Amino acid sequence: MNHADTLCNQYESGQRDFSKVDLPRAELINVDLSSVILNRADMRWINLSGSTLKEGSLCRADLSNSKLIGTNLSSANLSGADLSDADLSWANLSGANLSRCDLTNANLNQANVSFADLSGANLSNAILRNINLVGAHLNRTNLTHAKLMDANLSKANLSKADLSDCKLYDADLSKAVMQGINLSEANLRGANLNGAVLRDVKVSEITLTELQRQSIYRNNKIDLRLADLSGADLSGANLEGADLRFAALNGADMSSINLQEASLTDVYLQGANLKRANLSSSILSRVYFQETIMPDGSVRN
Questions:
Q1: Which of 2, 72, 183, 286 has its CA 20 to 30 A from that of 208?
Q2: Helix (H) or strand (E) holding 299
Q3: What is the SS3 assignment for 42?
Q4: Which helix (H) or strand (E) holds 5?
Q5: What are the mean pLDDT values of the chain's consecutive 10-residue runs (301 residues total)?
Q6: CB count, 10 Å around CB of 263?
């Protein structure tokens, strides 16, 4: 009898704690292990596809290269677990504790991770297409180079997360908290940022070309105070009524942008392109112009 069969038999007999068990390459497909305790277990290359481990405890377990396709891990505690290169597509991780997890190169395509705690987790290079991250906690999470196309991040907390070079095509970031995040070289084409809070963010060289007529609102005002938008492509974007106080827009492409009634106090616009921009009724106080292309095409020195 192998270790997987032994575990299942002991589980059926009422045992729940299997901490530090060795289950590398085990096959545990479509089994019910609800509330199981597998802390620090060795489960490298394990196949738990279709199984139920809801409300289980897998703290610091090694699940690298594992198959968890469609696995139910809702409300499970996976803090500090190694899930690198794991396949979690279609898995249910709603309400799970994934804090400080290693999810590098993991596949979470179509996974439900709503209201989960991913604070401090490493999701670099992860595949997160169509993932449900509604209300998730992603504080200080590493999402560099992650693929979040069509992801739902509505109401998620991304404070101080690193999303540099992240692919966010058509992602839903409505009402997300994105304070202090790094969006350098991220691609947000077609993303929904309505109601999102972007404050103290770094977004140099961000791609926003398809955010036209989309708005980044806070209390019905577009809040980009203190934002570093240096080198950003904001051409054609609608930032009517935006609060851009103390923002850095050096080298930004703001051609045909709508900044009507926007607040541009203490803003840096060195080398920015404002050709055909709508600045009517906007507040331009202590603005730093140097080699700036003005709305009429002239260069301001």
A1: 286
A2: strand 299-300
A3: strand
A4: helix 3-12
A5: 89 97 96 98 98 98 98 98 98 98 98 98 98 98 97 96 91 87 82 73 61 50 73 78 87 90 94 95 94 95 81
A6: 21
Handedness of CA 153, 181, 251, 195 (dihedral sign): positive
Instruction: Please give the Cα distance from 146 to 128 (Å, whole number).
Output: 7
The kind and range of the H/E element at 12 are helix 3-12
CA angle (273 as vertex; 272, 275 as ends), nearest 5: 150
* 148, two tokens: 């979040």
Report CA dihedral (182, 187, 189, 190) to the nearest 10 degrees: -50
Whole-number Å distance between alpha carbons of 92 and 55: 12
Q: How far apart are CA 289 and CA 301, in angstroms?
A: 6
pLDDT digits (tens, 9 = 90+) for 136-193: 999 999 999 999 999 999 999 999 999 999 999 889 988 888 888 888 888 877 777 7
Spatial contact of 276 and 256, defined as CB atoms under 8 Å apart:
yes
Run of H or E residues at 10: helix 3-12
CA 194/CA 221 separation, integer angstroms: 10
Other residues' Cβ atoms within 10 Å of the Cβ of residue 218:
16
- What is the three-class DSSP state of 7? helix
Instruction: Read off the amino acid at residue 31.
Output: V
Nearest-5° angle of CA 26, CA 30, CA 34? 90
pTM of the model as a whole: 0.79
d(CA 149, CA 301): 41
Q: Side chain identity at 236, as an amino acid letter?
A: G
CA distance 69 to 12: 23
